[in-house]
Design a protein that fits this description.
Blueprint lengths: L2 H11 L4 E5 L3 E2 L31 H4 L4 H4 L2 H9 L2 E4 L6 E6 L2 H10 L4 E4 L4 E6 L5 E5 L2 E4 L5 E2 L9 E2 L2 H4 L32 H16 L5 H16 L7 H13 L4 H14 L6
Parallel strand pairs: 6-10
Antiparallel strand pairs: 1-2, 1-3, 3-9, 4-6, 4-8, 5-6, 7-8
């Protein structure tokens, strides 16, 4: 068993979702068709691509605490070639303030509460308890890595971890606001051939939307993939008959955003699902 695999299993046992990295801090494609990221991406990545894998396969979305997955033959091959271990901070309820240089470190020491610190090649990772939206270049030399992002595992660090402060959350807020961005409206294809929609009953339709909300809310890892698959399931049932309203899509988008998805990612996942089902031009 490789050292990276042992580390991954140990982290997973403590509830930290992990994944292998190739040289250059690049994730593997964790299925045969996506070896070396040959497919170019998939809908559960930040940048959607043509890959249509049935499950999480890339980057942060591949991170898992399941030892059976980590020990699977595909992952075993990846661990043998891995240059490092990465983890999904948001999946472990953490936020990493990635400080790339001395100036960024000096700013953090003057502006942020003390917490656990992990030394990196160029600077430091400050770890806080609590998850939030990830963002790059929030300040010169400062990135935020939490939900839908991965960070290299460089050890446990030193110091006592403290709660995620408002000063860090504020770094990704462009304009202060107490209002959550409204889900973007999506036009659903009209009922083909006219007539009354067979799903227009409170029991059938509302039960389906409620189950979809629950599926998203209960996701513990691969949230973006879960949101996409849930949207796909809803649209496969209701997307051709016109029974979905803006109120229904708002419920789904709200559930997704409560799990850390941005309005843009909700819209991208919905659009990808429409395209997959051939509904985008209906």
């Amino acid at each position: 068993m490789s050292e990276h695999l042992r580390t991954a299993l140990s982290l997973a046992a403590h509830g930290v979702p992990t994944l292998p990295l190739r040289a250059g801090k690049v994730p593997f494609g964790n299925c045969r068709a996506c070896a070396d990221n040959a497919c170019g991406g998939r809908p559960n990545m930040k940048t959607p691509g043509p890959c249509a894998c049935p499950g999480p396969c890339h980057a942060w979305a591949a991170a898992t605490t399941n030892p059976d997955v980590i020990n699977s033959p595909t992952w075993q091959r990846a661990w043998r070639e891995a240059a490092a271990v990465a983890y999904h901070p948001g999946g472990a309820g953490l936020t990493v303030v990635d400080l790339d240089n001395a100036d960024a470190i000096a700013w953090a020491r003057a502006s942020l509460p003390a917490t656990r610190i992990v030394r990196t090649t160029r600077g430091e990772h400050w770890l806080y308890q609590g998850a939030m939206q990830s963002a790059n270049a929030v300040r010169p030399g400062v990135d935020i890595k939490s939900t839908m992002a991965y960070a290299r595992w460089l050890g446990f660090g030193t110091g006592t971890m403290t709660a995620l402060p408002d000063a860090v959350r504020a770094l990704v807020v462009k304009e202060p606001s107490t209002v959550r961005p409204a889900p973007q409206p999506v036009t659903v294809p009209a009922l083909v051939g006219g007539g009354e929609c067979p799903h227009r009953t409170p029991t059938y339709l509302d039960r389906g939307i409620a189950m979809a909300e629950q599926r998203i809310t209960e996701a513990r890892e691969a949230v973006h993939a879960t949101v996409y698959r849930t949207f796909l399931a809803v649209l496969s049932t209701h997307g051709r008959c016109g029974c979905l309203t803006d109120a229904h899509t708002a419920r789904l988008f709200t559930a997704a955003q409560a799990k850390g998805e941005s309005p843009r990612h909700c819209t991208d996942a919905w659009t990808n699902a429409l395209t997959t089902l051939g509904l985008s031009h209906v």
